[in-house]
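Handout, section B. The chain below has 154 residues.
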Amino acid sequence: MTYFIIKVICVYLASVGFGIIVNLPHRALNVAGIDGVIGWLIYYMMMQANGGIGSANFLGGLGIGICSIIFARFKKMPAILFDVPGLVPLVPGGQAYNAIKSFATGHYQAAFSYLSEVIWIAGAIALGFIVAELCLKIDNKIRRSIRLKRVSRK
């Protein structure tokens, strides 16, 4: 249990640290860290449930995207400010490093295996963000139609 708490703290610090590096406004740093932790927890739970790396990253990206939209409305800031630091814990840096190392050492089969995994993970995260934005568009259309119905009744 202690190891898990240390992981959560490190994920939070990684998200906040990246937010500091990209010069995120100070009032958004804590929320960006929480966004990263939420996305990583979704990813971690899916991996523990043998959900597969693609679905775990997709749901993690979806969670980050939806939380970013909610936090953006709450803080009255653009959602991208929370998206970017939030996805840092999901970035497939280890696989990308292994792919480049395998290319450099001449192990091309292993390199292409790692490279395909990097593309799969990055695509799953991007698809999660796309679905989150789609949910936002649907929510906006529903809210707009409800407002129009209220106005037409008066």
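Note. Residues 8 and 37 are 6 Å apart (CA to CA). Compare this with the example in section A.
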